[in-house]
Structure formats: structure tokens, C-alpha cells
């Protein structure tokens, strides 16, 4: 079949890499894609929010399946748009409805959904600018540290963990009164801080049945030892030692089932991926957040562990036949190290030529913020530039494979964290 994939990041390169391995895929188009997807599929110069352009491209190129990678077009309603056009209504789309995407588009909406459906999560309250005094009074009652979350989409950067009450109050005012995160912080969720180890759980669902994909742990801060500013993600590890069979059974019973059942019960159309950010607190799962798509860079560690046909999975989601899909997962380890432009997540320079190793055993180089310049050279074009995934029978072997390739990739001012996976290695010892 002809498949259209929307997006341009490392997640989309991983999707493309997996899709083209399937004999079910005859032609893959990626809009807009990056330099990595250009090598294995056909990039299309089309914005992910140009819904009419997407519809016309689908019709002109006999597209039989649409896969939406990032959250922005989902939150803006691309799935509803395509399913409401008579020419495209019969074409399966992998991605939730606009209402379903509100689970990521609004932190307040998702917290209320969790409460209604008895999904374990941290205590919280939501405030707007006209409730500033009530919000400041509420902060006085909270234990430290205090978590502040911009209600809307903020590219993974709208969460602040404040260590003092003064910092929390100043940040709260900045978010609501000075629009620190733009329109995303028109509402602010004040949340109880949960201690423990974070875990990302990925679920594929067609709205009725579901499949739990390999779990992963990601690393969000720019600095080693989880210090510095939050980023979109600096690395990931899969599988995760503390997510054993007993714990994952709890996750399924306490989180996954009530979430999928809640979507059906509340008539929220959802055919897509659900990323559940969890905190393992004293052996119990608590939901930190929902994302309505696969995570990045976790996708680059999760997809290499899926052994069954990925296009069959996508078709199962899009056509409501997921219960028939037999998911096979490799026991091997996959570890991803993200290489970023110097200065990220703040301002950074781009356009530096990138040199890649000729060969990388047991390693996959996924492109994210890359493009080619007028001379045909590969250059850095974004903050997160590449995600290098190492495979191995052990975590140690997978990390060694990833880092040996990372050390042979060069461009001016490139940066990466050298401690990815080290906390898990210590737990294993």
C-alpha cells in the first residue's frame, strides 16, 4: 500500500525505518521529513498543519493509510478533518480525534479524565490569571518541591519543578501574567511532586482493544545527572529493569485498562498511540501525563525491539482490527543517545556540516533536526539533531554500541549526555 507519514523528527525517521521493512509497504511518503527519511522514503514539502494540502496529496497519490507522528496536527484536528471529507473518509488514519488529542493538548482536561476514570495520579488544582490570588494561597499549602505545568502544548518544556516557595510563586506569576509559555500557560496546573523512578509506557489502541508496546525510560534534562533545563529528551533505554512482569500487570490493570475503557465510555474516538508517562512510587504506578503519540526519543528505542510487521500494527489501529495483531517483542536491549546542537534547549547555531561514520555495527542512526545544504552536505537544522540507537543482548553492550557510534559523529558544537543508562546499570548491579 501507499502510506503517508506526517512529521519530521527522530520519531518519524524511526517510523519510516520500520514501515519500509514491511512487504505491505509499496511506497512511503513523509511530509515534510528530514535528511534521514529522504534516504529511505520520498519527502514531500508539505506542512503538517496544511490539512487541505494533505487531503489533496492523499487523493493525488492513492494513499491507503495515513500515520500522524507529532501532536500538533492531532491537537488541531487533522484526523477529524480527513474523516469528515467524503473523499478521504474511508482511508484509515492512525491518530486520535481532536477530542482524544486533548489528553495531551490540555493538562487540566487529562487530569479531570484521570479522576473520572479512577486512574492513579498526583493531587492537583488548576488556576487561570483571574484566580492568581487563590493560586498563590494554594501554593502556601503545598509541600516542596512544587510542580507547575502549563496547561497547553509547550514542546516538552512547560513543566517546572520548583524547590522553594518563592521560586514557585515567581514562576506561577510569570506563567499566568507574563505568558512565560505563551498561550500554553493561560491555565496552570499546580501538582503534587511524586518521588520515584519515571517510566514511559506505550499503548497502541483502536478504541476497543489495545497492545502494550515495549516500555522505556527517557532522560529529559540537558545536563548529566539529570541537571539543567528540561528538553524534548536526551536519551532512552528499553527494556527497563524495574518494569518487571508484576509491575507491568499493575500498570495494565490500574492504568491502561481504565484509560482505554474511559475513552470508550466517554465516546472519545481514539485510534492511535497513547504514551503514558508514569512514576513508579514505592512499586505503584501513578500517571504523570498522557501524550497522544509515540515519544521522542523513546520511539527510537522501542521500535527496534518490535519483531512483528509494523504496517500490520498500523493497519490494525486504523481499521479497528487490532485484536487480531500478534505483537512480538525482542528480549534484546535498545539504548538511544540524542546528539543536540550546542546551546539547546535555548538558542543554538545551525547549518554546521555533519560527518558520519561509514559503518555502525549493531547501531541505527536516526535523523531528527537534519537537512542538506546547497552543496549537498548534511547539516544540523534543529535542536535535537540525531538519535543513535545501539542494540545488544545486555544493557552494557547496547550502550557501548550506541556510544561508539556517537563518538564518530561530528559537527561543530555538538553535545550529548554521556550518562544515559548509567542509573539503570547501577540498579542491575
Write structural notes for this entry.
This protein is of the alpha+beta class and 429 residues long. Among the domains are: 96 residues, Rossmann fold (3-Layer(aba) Sandwich); 70 residues, 2-Layer Sandwich (Dna Ligase, domain 1), CATH 3.30.1490. The strands form six sheets. Strands 12, 15, 18, 19, 22 and 23 form a six-stranded antiparallel β-sheet that branches. It has a five-stranded parallel β-sheet with strand order 3-2-1-4-5, with helices on both faces. The radius of gyration is 21 Å and the shape is globular. The model has no long low-confidence stretch (mean pLDDT 96).
Characteristics of this structure?
single chain; 429 residues; alpha+beta; Rossmann fold; Dna Ligase, domain 1; 6-stranded antiparallel beta sheet; 5-stranded parallel beta sheet; 23 strands; 31% helix; globular; purine biosynthesis
The overall strand count is: 23
| Broad CATH class of the domain at 2-97 | Alpha Beta
Kindly report how far apart the N and C termini lie. 47 Å
Shape: globular
Work out the strand percent: 25-35%
CATH topology of the domain at 2-97: Rossmann fold
The computed structural class is: alpha+beta
- The whole-number mean of residue pLDDT values reads 96
Total helical segments: 14
What Rg is obtained from the alpha carbons, in whole angstroms?
21 Å
Spans of at least 5 consecutive residues with low confidence:
none
Helix content: 25-40%
Main beta sheet, described? Answer: 6 strands, antiparallel
CATH hierarchy: architecture of the domain at 2-97: 3-Layer(aba) Sandwich
Pathway: Purine metabolism; IMP biosynthesis via de novo pathway; N(1)-(5-phospho-D-ribosyl)glycinamide from 5-phospho-alpha-D-ribose 1-diphosphate: step 2/2
Domain ATP-grasp: 111-319
GO molecular function: ATP binding; metal ion binding; phosphoribosylamine-glycine ligase activity
EC number: 6.3.4.13
Amino acid at each position: 500500500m501507499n502510506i503517508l507519514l506526517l512529521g519530521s523528527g527522530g520519531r518519524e525517521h524511526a517510523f519510516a525505518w520500520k514501515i519500509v521493512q514491511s512487504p505491505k509497504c509499496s511506497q512511503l511518503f513523509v511530509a515534510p521529513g528530514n535528511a534521514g527519511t529522504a534516504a529511505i522514503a520520498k519527502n514531500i514539502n508539505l506542512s503538517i498543519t496544511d490539512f487541505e494540502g494533505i487531503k489533496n496529496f492523499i487523493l493525488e497519490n492513492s494513499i491507503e493509510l495515513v500515520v500522524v507522528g507529532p501532536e500538533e496536527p492531532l491537537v488541531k484536528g487533522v484526523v477529524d478533518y480527513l474523516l469528515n471529507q467524503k473523499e478521504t473518509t474511508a482511508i484509515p488514519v492512525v491518530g486520535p480525534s481532536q477530542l482524544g488529542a486533548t489528553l495531551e493538548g490540555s493538562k487540566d482536561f487529562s487530569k479531570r479524565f484521570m479522576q473520572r476514570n479512577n486512574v492513579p495520579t498526583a493531587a492537583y488544582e488548576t488556576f487561570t490569571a483571574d484566580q492568581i490570588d487563590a493560586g498563590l494561597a494554594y501554593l502556601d499549602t503545598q509541600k516542596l518541591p512544587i510542580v507547575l505545568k502549563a496547561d497547553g502544548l509547550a514542546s516538552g518544556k512547560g513543566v517546572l519543578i520548583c524547590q522553594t516557595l518563592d521560586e514557585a510563586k515567581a514562576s506561577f506569576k510569570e506563567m499566568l501574567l507574563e505568558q512565560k509559555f505563551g498561550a500554553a500557560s493561560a491555565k496552570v496546573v499546580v501538582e503534587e511532586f511524586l518521588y520515584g523512578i519515571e517510566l514511559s509506557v506505550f499503548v497502541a489502541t483502536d478504541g476497543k482493544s489495545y497492545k502494550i508496546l515495549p516500555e522505556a525510560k527517557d532522560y529529559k534534562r540537558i545536563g548529566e545527572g539529570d541537571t539543567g533545563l528540561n528538553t524534548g529528551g536526551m536519551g532512552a533505554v528499553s527494556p527497563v529493569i524495574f518494569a518487571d512482569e508484576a509491575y507491568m500487570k499493575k500498570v495494565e490493570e490500574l492504568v491502561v485498562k481504565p484509560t482505554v475503557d474511559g475513552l470508550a465510555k466517554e465516546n472519545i474516538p481514539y485510534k492511535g498511540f497513547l504514551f503514558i508517562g508514569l512514576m513508579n512510587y514505592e512499586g505503584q504506578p501513578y500517571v504523570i501525563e498522557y501524550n497522544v503519540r509515540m515519544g521522542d526519543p523513546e520511539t527510537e528505542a522501542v521500535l527496534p525491539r518490535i519483531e512483528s510487521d509494523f504496517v500490520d500494527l498500523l493497519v490494525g489501529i486504523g481499521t479497528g482490527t487490532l485484536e487480531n495483531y500478534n505483537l512480538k517483542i525482542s528480549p534484546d536491549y535498545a539504548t538511544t543517545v540524542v546528539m543536540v546542537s550546542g546551546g539547546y534547549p535555548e538558542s543554538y547555531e545551525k547549518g554546521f556540516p555533519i560527518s558520519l561514520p561509514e559503518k555502525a555495527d549493531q547501531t541505527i542512526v536516526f535523523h531528527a533536526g537534519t537537512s542538506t545544504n546547497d552543496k549537498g552536505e548534511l547539516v544540523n537544522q534543529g535542536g535535537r539533531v540525531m538519535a543513535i540507537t545501539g542494540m545488544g543482548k545486555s544493557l552494557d553492550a547496547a550502550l557501548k554500541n550506541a556510544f561508539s557510534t556517537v563518538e564518530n559523529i561530528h559537527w561543530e558544537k555538538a553535545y550529548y549526555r554521556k550518562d544515559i543508562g548509567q542509573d539503570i546499570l547501577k540498579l542491575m548491579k
